[in-house]
Design goal:
Pfam family, one: BPS1
Oligomer: single chain
Helix content: over 70%
Organism: Eucalyptus globulus (Tasmanian blue gum)
Largest sheet: none
Number of domains: 1
Strand content: under 5%
Shape: elongated
Distance between the termini: 78 Å
Protein name: DUF241 domain protein
Order of helices and strands: HHHHHHHHHHHH
Number of strands: 0
InterPro entries: BPS1_pln
Radius of gyration: 29 Å
Structural class: mainly alpha
Number of helices: 12
């Protein structure tokens, strides 16, 4: 009986000499660095949302345009988060020409949205004066309102020309020989620039057509008809200008109807103004992060 117990005690000693579990755990951890950072994955998802929005027919409603601006703001905020990562900072510090081009593009975007905010503010002031003129049936003061609509039309046309210059240039013209994670990040940054240009063109083009005179609006659409994708006037922002020139002949009920349309127009303008202001702030924040990368 004692000999049997002695033999049985030797088995645990053999098992203790084979430490295999740590080897298995070590092998599994090797694959982790090859995965994209969660912040980069989130940015790629935001760009996919913007691609889905852009693939739809041209925006014809304020809600649709505001949705595109909201998606753009999310992508810009996600880009700003990625710019805080060492991976992004090393990439951009190693390519100063790329960073300088990004700074230039984001400055042009921010300037465009700043001008847009100023144009909308001036239009809202003209809108308030038009309310008084409509109530008093004063057609002479309607002329200043029409001038404000023409002015915002011209300013939006100028902004589209500026943004198209950015859209024509690809920040990744040169082959990128960096590591795979850096290549993915560089492509995502390029995607944000392209998405910003695309949504901005939709905004400025739609406003330009919406605030143009009826004849000018249609001629603009005909000029652009040969392009693959044409932005159209925003339904809620269009105004029956002919009715404003015949205020004296209107009955009180018709005047109230025109005032209601004007109030609805003002509400939609304020909606887009609010979302575009958030985009402007996100552009400024991302540009500050780029400046910090170059200077720190």
């Amino acid at each position: 009986m004692v000999g049997v117990f002695g033999r049985s005690l030797s088995f645990p000693n053999k098992n203790q000499a084979r430490p295999k579990p740590p080897m298995t755990h070590h092998n599994r951890s090797v694959s982790l660095p090859n995965r994209s950072h969660p912040l980069l994955s989130n940015l790629i998802d935001q760009l996919s949302d913007l691609d889905a929005w852009s693939s739809l027919p041209p925006a014809r409603s304020s809600a649709r345009l505001a949705d595109g601006l909201s998606r753009l703001r999310n992508a810009l905020d996600s880009l700003d988060d990625n710019l805080q990562l060492p991976q992004a900072q090393n990439l951009l510090r190693g390519r100063p020409q790329l960073t300088e081009k990004l700074l230039e593009d984001f400055l042009r975007f921010a300037d465009a949205y700043g001008i847009f905010q100023s144009s909308v503010l001036a239009f809202k002031e003209a809108q308030m004066a038009a309310h008084v003129a409509i109530r008093k049936k004063d057609e002479s003061k309607i002329a200043s309102y029409m001038k404000a609509r023409k002015r915002i039309h011209k300013e939006m046309r100028d902004l589209t020309s500026s943004i198209r210059c950015v859209a024509k240039c690809d920040i990744l013209r040169e082959p990128d020989h960096s590591l795979v994670p850096d290549t993915e990040l560089a492509a995502a940054i390029s995607g944000v620039v392209k998405a910003t240009a695309s949504v901005s063109l939709a905004l400025f083009d739609s406003f330009a057509l919406s605030f143009a005179a009826r004849r000018s609006s249609w001629s603009g659409l005909l000029r652009l008809s040969k392009k693959a994708k044409v932005d159209e006037p925003i339904e809620e922002l269009q105004c029956t200008e002919e009715r404003l020139w015949s205020l004296r002949k209107m009955k009180d009920e018709e005047v109230r109807e025109v005032l209601k349309k004007m109030e609805e127009l003002e509400g939609w303008v304020e909606c887009i103004e609010s979302v575009s202001e958030r985009v402007f702030r996100s552009l400024i924040s991302a540009r500050v992060s780029l400046l910090n990368i170059l200077t720190l």
